[in-house]
Amino acid sequence: MFKRLLIANRGEIAVRIIRACQELGVETVAVYSDVDADALHVQLADCAYLIGPADASQSYLNIDAIIAAAKATHADAIHPGYGFLSENADFAEKVTNSGLVFVGPRAETIRKVGNKDAAREAMTQAGLPMATGSDPVRNATEACRIADEIGYPVIMKPVSGGGGKSIYVANNTTELISAVNKVDLTTSIFYLEKYIADARHIEVQIVADNYGHIIHLGERECSLQRRNQKILEEAPSSALSAEMRQKVGSLAIRAAKSVHYTNVGTVEFLMDKNSGDFYFMEINPRIQVEHAITEAITGIDLVRKQLRIAAGEPLNVKQEDVTFTGHAIECRINAEDPAQNFLPSPGQITFYHQPGGPKVRVDSGVCAGSVVQPYYDSLIAKVIVRGRSRGEAIKVMQRALGEFRISGIKTTIDFHLEVLKDPYFCSGDIDTQFIYKRMIS
Fold first, then answer.
1. Which of 10, 106, 120, 286 is catalytic?
2. Is 405 a catalytic residue?
3. Coiled coil located at which positions (predicted)?
4. Which residue among 116, 337, 362, 426 sits deepest, i.e. has the most Cβ atoms within 10 Å of its Cβ?
5. Whole-angstrom distance, CA of residue 350 vs CA of residue 198
6. Is 179 helix (H, G, I), strand (E, B) or coil?
7. Please, what is the angle between helix 11-24 and helix 302-310, to 10°?
8. DSSP 3-state of 19
């Protein structure tokens, strides 16, 4: 195991990694921008290193500064967390070339799965089911011709990048031309795919060591989204039977094997609600925000697994050893004002009391007195609960969110409580358009 790990991130995921390292006896190095000097992850790490100003491009996205910090603090390895540089193959490559260990997949794997065009080709060759798609489009005329062949509605996606950004759905030619006009096709590459209107977003957690052993840890339901950004996640999905769960798990392992995947990752699918068919979307080569609900129903610590695998240890869990118990839900608490179209709400937290009690876990990057910066992602905490059933988990989450008190900024706590009361949500009748159809007029 490593002696010292640098965490190339901030917020709740940095705190989460620090806690895992403390349990493993690994020293931690926090990096921070000048506005994050008093941040919680900086306070909890064994040592901290200033890497630049508030502008992320000069700090948390500054590859040379991060590697220099690792060298200066005598770190053995770097954990990228999620976001920022976590899916940057050049970063992973430079970390490795610097004699450090990158906690994640190999650079060539990140590069392959990060290019959606190349990933689609690899998955097609591996026999994974794919929605009808196109080669990269070059202009509006070509996009319209392709859309006519595929049939509307279509979805336009960037070849590279993740997090649900720069994705557009078009129901007709006018909407497609409008979408094309919003992007610069001279500098960015996009492709079209048949859009499945009544779909659920199902992702499968995979874990793979460096010796060819790959397992899956079940699926997560990620259909509740706003602007293609996940809001609330569940594990397992209420829509899947045991046979469907086995099928999508096998598909995920096949996808991972096809790109020689190592470490922890997620294979994402769209499931057609009408047919029950799965369609490959992408592979996320990193820890996910929602990893905690998988931990809750399996008892497997995914961050510790990441570290052990990166340190060269073999996977000590077989597929038949994985069991699922109960139901878990995660609510992402963002510093946003739902009443103002989810406008970010930076500022100082003047009062902070997080929920506790049985079956409740909170992963947070803030405390009373913390300043929520306007420069970075608005996620400040995650509430994770577990129940013996989905219904019980909903009740536990309602109780937990009712206890959560944050003053000084606006948050999405009350918005989540409204979701949890919705009869369609409670019945499990959800899809990727649920938030827009039921919660946002």
1. 286
2. no
3. none
4. 116
5. 42
6. helix
7. 70
8. helix
